[in-house]
Amino acid sequence: MQGLSYDYHFIDLFRRLKDGEEAGHIHSIFQRVVNFTDGEHNMFSVATKDIDNAPYTLRIDGVADFRDLVSEGDKLYRDGNRLMVGDGLSITIVENRLWIGNCIEKSKVDPMIIAKNIEYFNEMILNCSPMGGAKYSYLKNILGIDMIEGPSLIEKELSNRIERFLYGIYEYDIKVKDLNRLIGFGVGLTPSGDDFLVGFLSALNSIDTEYINNIFDGIVELIDIEDISTTDISKQMIRIAIDGQAREYISGFIRAFSEADRDGFIHSYRNILRIGSSSGMDISIGIAMAFHFILDTKNWRLEDEEDIG
Question: Which end of the chain has fewer CB atoms surrounding its CB within 10 Å, N or C?
């Protein structure tokens, strides 16, 4: 089997290893992903080719289901130009396969383009997205729509926690208790509250103004990655967002908000929905709500006008 692409985190880890040296310990095994951790609490992934590029990730071909090849307790180690995972998986690491799109691009955007893309997003979330997670919060608080079928208790509580978080953002009075109530809330490997926060932080990080930077920094200062109560996979995901990095489908969707390309926006939205079972939807809602906030930020509008004039 052969490596198709990797980011600089993954290739740096591999190049530092001596022959026979262990890369880390297996954390979790799924159909399309194997996660392992190194000695510094970083989580790396080996993923099938249908998974998008991501930080700390190696994509490979030739695997339909990792669960048929890898077991808990298998050793990961270097053997020449190969990464070995137990006796069932040998991956040749090919040179010049570096994916360089892991950092979120800073951009100056046109408010009219953002507003138009938010309209497209509103159409699609009504017609394309499944219910669950943060969708109820968006329908209720952004679109003012009452659901025909009542939301679950988890959806209602998540909506309340998002509201408290956003209230602190708009009032520039972010409370650590409101942030901690959002982190880790929900079910699954990456709870909906974490997915929402990753989308929100990633979108903020794409706008380079003093006010937005201060909001981003204010949120980040309240997050102690080692102390937050959530899953290990979510911790890695939040850590990556704090570092200004993102997987391919997330950065593509954020970039689409600044481009006047309806077809491209729809394509990028459909891509982000492919992340997990519902994670992509929750991440996209976090991104959209961040862009709502960006449009509502007078300081950002004034800076934009000054740059034009």
Answer: C
Helices (H) and strands (E) in the chain, counts: 12, 8
Are 169 and 291 within one domain? Answer: yes
Report d(CA 219, CA 238) in Å as an integer: 12
Residue with tokens 């954020």: 254
Task: Quote the domain boundaries for residue 73.
Answer: 3-92
Kindly report which listed range (24-38, 120-134, 177-191) carries the lowest average pLDDT score: 120-134
- The per-residue pLDDT for 148 is 58
On average, the pLDDT of the chain sits at 91
Structure confidence by residue, pLDDT tens digits, 81-140? 999 998 889 999 999 999 999 899 887 778 899 999 999 999 999 887 777 899 999 999
288 lies in some domain: yes
Nearest to 211 by CA among 283, 284, 309, 302: 302
Is pLDDT at 192 greater than 80 in this prediction?
A: yes
Residue 31 has pLDDT above 70, yes or no: yes
Hunting for tokens 């709502």 — which residue is that? 292
Asked, for residue 157, whether it belongs to a domain, the answer is yes
Q: Mark whether 129 and 207 lie in a shared domain.
A: yes
162 and 263 share one domain:
yes
Cα(5)–Cα(98) distance, rounded to whole angstroms?
6
142 & 61 share domain: no
Of 101, 103, 104, 85, the residue nearest 93 (C-alpha): 85
Which among 28, 62, 92 is the end of a domain? 92
